[in-house]
Every structure is written in structure tokens, then in C-alpha cells.
Amino acid sequence: MSWFKKEKTPLPAAKQSRMPEGLWTKCRECAEILYTKEIVRNLSVCPKCNYHMGLSSVERAKALLDDGRYEELETGLTSNDPLEFTDTKRYRDRLARSRESTGLEDAVLIAAGRILGVPVVLAAMEYGFIGGSMGVVVGEKIARAAERALERKIPLLIVSRSGGARMQEGAISLMQMAKISAVLARLDEANVPYISILTDPTTGGVTASFAMLGDINLAEPKALIGFAGPRVIEQTIREPLPSGFQRSEYLEEHGMLDMIVERAAMRETLGKLLRFFTQRVPPSSPSAPGMEDRIEVEMEAEAALAPERVSNEEPVS
Length: 317
Ligand SMILES: [Zn+2]
Prior knowledge:
- Helix content is about 35%, strand content about 15%.
- It folds into two domains: about 20-55, no CATH class; about 55-305, 2-enoyl-CoA Hydratase, Chain A, domain 1 (Alpha-Beta Complex), CATH 3.90.226.
- Strands 3-4-5-6-7-8-9 form a seven-stranded mixed sheet, with helices on both faces. Strands 1-2 form a two-stranded antiparallel ribbon.
- It is α/β, with parallel strands linked by helices.
- Zinc ion binds near residues 29, 48 and 51.
């Protein structure tokens, strides 16, 4: 019977879109179709509804540091998969794929540069690398960045964008919380400023450690910031959560954040804060020699005048 053997003809391919790939981007918040170049020009903030889209760590470093220039520090560290972990995929394969797609060794970029002339060490987390999760490499790199800031006596900035500790490294990833917090305490003793910038999303062990330990904690508008997810909390306390819970605005209102800063104003705000902390006058020439020495002297003078610096650290439960 011939109709049982009827040959299957493939369906005709859908007409190709006339729009080239990547020319337009849809805003996740307001669904507006936007010209990608315009969004990039606007630091990946929706011009229509002010939604702050995610930035990669490289985009972040370029957006914050003078002339978009920086020197990458603490390279050459990669995870050796201590638990030989496999979930739906092998952890080693996940690492390899993330390395390829992001061009980074792990979920953080450490950069030395300047903000409005003030030298800083910046750690920018990369969400595209296994959800920006903190494993042994991220922990070690951030700890070393803090040590570098301590050594050079220049401010440390950490831009958090992370789903928390990296499950695939088990307890070793949790230990990074204590390790980084310990170095930050040394920074505090030495009066070296640390500014934390929380972006969407900052959750889990990152929130529960260094992201909330800044001398100043800044956040971008409407960023999701929390420890456990809202569903887990609701089930635990058996109560519906208030609206806007775990967003920057709610946290600022409840004293967990110092300031919410729009991306377009971030560099200027950081410049002001850094000058305040390092007591510098605006530089006549950002590349003046011996600036780091001057900051060091000024910081020592400040330390002598005010040995007890007020810390705004929030207790973490
Ligand atoms: Zn929008």
C-alpha cells in the first residue's frame, strides 16, 4: 500500500526575517523594541523605562574606569574541580564552555585603573560565567584584589552580580565568604576604603558576605538583592512578602543600602566618594606623577586624626 510508504517532505523553511540578528533588542521590562546601538550608547539602560540591563564584567570595567582603560590583575587562576562534580553536565565542561563564551578564566575580572583620576582596584563579577557564582577562583581573586588594594593603599571597589556560592565546589565555595571577609577587615583596620556596588542580581553567599560589607554600599535601581529567594522565605515565615521586597529601593528604605545610583551617574558618584575618602582635591592632571604616594600620605594623616573610623557594616545572620 503506497500511502503507508509516502515520502515525507520537509515543511518549507520559515521566511527569513528581514531584520539582521542583533540590530534590535527587546527590553525585558517594558517590551519596547530598541535599536541595540542606542542601548549600548546609553550604558545598557532602557531609554524608555530606565531598566538597567546586565553588563558583562568587561563592559562594567570600561564603563567605570577613566577612558575605559585598565590593567587586568591576578590572572592565571582556574578551578581544578576539587569534587569532580557532575550534575546534568560535568562541572569541567561547564567551566570550559563558560571560559569560551566569556573569554574569562572565571566569574570575576580584577582590574587596576582610575576613576576621575583616583587609582582603584576594581573587581567586577561576570554573570555570564555560571551565573556569576563564587567558587574558589572567584574567592581567591577577590581576596587578592583586596590585598593588592591594601598593599598599594588605594580604594577597593567590588561590583557584585552573582547567584551566590558555586554549588559545584560545595563547602569550598562557602569558605570564600569567610576568606574575603577576613581580608576586608584588614582593609578596614588600615583605613583603606572599600565601596561595594550591588547590581541585578546579587544573591546568596555574595550578599551574605562582601557585597554588604562596604564602607559604602551602593546599588543600581531595581536590582534584586537578597539571600534566599522569595518563595523559600514565604514558605519559612508563612506570610506573603511585601511588594518590592528584595529590590534596591526596599533595601535602601530599610537601611541596608546607603544609596541607589543610576548607571549614568555611577562614575561621577564614585569619583566624589573616592575623593571624600582619600581627601583629594580634583586633579588638575589625572596622570600627575606620584599621585599614589600623595594619597598614601593623606590617608596616613587621616588615620592619625581619626583612628576610629565609623563602620556601617550590617550584621549578617
Ligand atoms: Zn524598557
